[in-house]
Each structure stands twice: as C-alpha cells, then as structure tokens.
Automatic annotation (TrEMBL):
Natural source organism: Microbacterium testaceum
Protein name stated in the entry: Transport permease protein
Keyword Phosphoprotein among UniProt keywords: no
Protein's cellular compartments: Cell membrane
Molecular-function annotations in GO: ABC-type transporter activity
Length: 263
C-alpha cells in the first residue's frame, strides 16, 4: 500500500476491495482457461523438486541440504515459484492492461499489488503438497514452524517493494523486461534453494545474507530443519526487505506520471 491510500476509511476500503476484485479476476482467468486448473500451482515446483532430488540423490553424492531432501527442496521451491512468477509479471503489470490503467481511477499501485496477492494465494493453495511430503517423508516438525507465517509476511513485503520499483521502470525502459528474466535465472542459483546457507563457505555466507530471499527461505525451513537457522541471514534479510519496500514507496509516486505518459 502506498502513501496515496492513506485517507478516509471509506477510500481505503474501496481500494482494498478493488485490489481483491482484480486479484480474484486474475485467479479466475488463470483457472478457467486451463484444463488442469489448480494443479498448475503445484506442478512446476513438483517437477523442479523431482529433477533436483534425482540429480543430487541418485546421480551425484549429495553434500548439501538435509534429509528428507525432497522436503528441504520444496520448502524453498514453493516460495521461489511465488517470487519468480510475481516478479516476472511485474515487468508487464502496466503494459498488459494499459487502457484500464490510463482510463480508470483505481490507484495505480493496485495493478502491482494484485499480482502479489493472486500469486500469494496460489502459493498458499500449494502448501498441502508440502504437508504431504513432510508427513510421508518423515520430516520432523518443531515449534520453529511458527516462523512460517513470518516468512510469508516478509516475502509479501519484499514483493510489494520490488513491484513498486520494477513495474514502472519496465514501462520506461523496455530492455528491463529481458534483463529481469536474466537476473531471476541467476538469482535462483544465488539463493539457498538446492542448498542451505550453512553449506556456503566463509565469506560467501556473509555475502548471501544480503540476498533477502536467503533469510526468507531460512524462516520457511527452520520449522522442519532447525539447524538451518542463521541469525545474521534472517535479520539482514528482513532489513533488506523493509528497505526495498521503503524505496518502492518513495519511488513509485515519482514514477507514476512518466509511466502514464509512456502508456
């Protein structure tokens, strides 16, 4: 939510209602035009998990992560799919509905945040898969599972901030859409998904702490794998996420008018 939304309670309610309507529209369109519907929310991370599980457990002698490795993978791959799909959609958030963005009085931040909400709902709908693998894989659950909702909140904060920055910049600079895709590919391997923060040697672990996804994925995992806890990574990740949100809230109002001219 941007400073522009601060005002009368009725205005806030209307904005939130518009946010939910647009988010639910995205979900209806996604599922109504697909024969598999809900299954698409889980197929991508499942296929990725299966590939990495096979490579690291059956082909190579795995020296990273923890057992059960499939649960270790899924706890990071599910939120990664949320992050990756949301950031990818940010690059075309305004271009896709350019006419509506120009002609309606809906606050422009809603066109960004609806992506966070709709992709976040898909993430939540995929969590039963994690539960099933945790149960049948024999994963141990600890009180630290209470950190899971905190991870969801921090990831939401991070995505809203990134959306407020990436979406308008991609309208103004067309090459940023392709650049963002390249960055996401590199970020997948630079984030502790197929490995844990503890598997990184020395200075690399300290550098990785400045990747906010490292702290977020640690919070997702710690309920199943307590040894994955790393205070520096979590604290720095939370600070960077909040910093990105602050930067987005600062930049978005300044970029809004140039974006409308480009559309």
């Amino acid at each position: 939510m941007t400073p522009a939304t601060v005002g009368a309670p009725g205005s806030v309610r209307r904005s939130l209602h518009s946010l939910w309507l647009l988010s639910s529209r995205d979900l209806r369109v996604r599922y109504s035009t697909s024969a598999l519907g809900y299954l698409w929310s889980v197929l991508d991370p499942l296929v990725m998990s299966g590939i990495y599980w096979f490579v690291f457990t059956q082909v190579f002698h795995r020296s990273v992560g923890e057992d059960p490795y499939i649960v270790f993978l899924i706890t990071a791959l599910l939120p990664w799919v949320w992050f990756n799909s949301a950031v990818t959609d940010f690059t075309k958030a305004f271009k896709k509905d350019a006419r509506l963005v120009r002609s309606t009085s809906i606050p422009r931040w809603i066109w960004v945040d609806r992506i966070v909400v709709s992709k976040g709902v898909e993430f939540l709908l995929s969590l039963p898969v994690l539960v099933l693998f945790a149960v049948f894989g024999g994963a141990q659950v600890s009180w630290a599972l209470l950190a899971f909702p905190l991870a969801v909140i921090l990831q939401t904060v991070l995505l809203v901030g990134l959306g407020l920055i990436v979406a308008p910049l991609c309208v103004m600079f067309g090459d940023l859409e392709r650049t963002t895709r390249l960055v996401l590919r590199a970020l997948f391997y630079a984030s502790p998904i197929i490995y844990g923060v503890g598997n990184l040697p020395g200075v690399f672990a300290d550098i990785a702490a400045f990747n906010p996804l490292a702290g977020i994925f640690t919070l997702y995992r710690v309920g199943f794998f307590p040894d994955q806890w790393d205070t520096l990574t979590v604290v720095v990740g939370a600070a960077v996420s909040l910093g990105i949100l602050g930067l987005g809230l600062l930049l978005f109002p300044r970029l809004e008018r140039p974006v409308l001219k480009e559309l």
